[in-house]
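Session log. Operator J.P. requested a structure for one protein chain; no other inputs attached. Running the standard single-chain path with token output.
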Amino acid sequence: MKIKLLPSTFDEHGHPCVEQRLSCYLVDDTIAIDAGSLGLALAPHERTAIRDVIITHTHIDHIASLPIFIDDSFEYLEQPVRVYATAENIQRLEDDIFNWHTYPRFSELSNGHCRVMEYVTLRPNETFSIKHLTITPIPVHHAVPTVGLLLTSNDTHVAYSADTGATDEFWRVLNRLPHLDALLIECSFPNALSKLAIDSGHLTPALLDTELEKLDHLTSIYAVHIKPSYRDVIMREIAACGRTNLRIAEPGLTYEW
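Structure written below.
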């Protein structure tokens, strides 16, 4: 399994910047998890391979360029862009984004070949399949309804926490696995802002360290969703945790297991 954290921005030489303002991950070059930078960071040939987009929740940094991605693909689609989300989050997308005011309701439009977009409803803890992957959405603890994801391909298991604070069901599901190949988990704020993190459903390095005590597997762990303003101090505080298997994921790199 391959996963790439798409960059939010690029420098003057076209290289990915380390600051992560938007959240979007490509799995095996064909499936997107969240869509913050989906419509901004891909070359045209990369966009054509993606027709399945999983939305963990509807905060703007996770959906910002979904409308742009679909708009840019509109003319060339021969099958709909399938947007996977829980019923609550589908309703939020329809109410707040694809509502004919903020953006057209693409689920009602056709380009002459097919409908442009269709929704697929996710049910928490109910496994579903996209191509070669089986995926389990797991409720986590955030300020709005959110699911983390367990991705499985053959005997490879990779988990993504999405945005979350302290949570339990996520760890129970992972601990039932025979092994876990990798974990991508958020770490948004520095330790000095622990109250803000807790109130908003996020983690700090210290809170992350506590959460990882709930995981029974020894695995590669990648911290994501680092707020750019605090990146340097969060890097130092993560290093101070002393976990040799914990590092910060780099935008633009492809990780493979």
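Operator note: The chain has eight helices and 14 strands.
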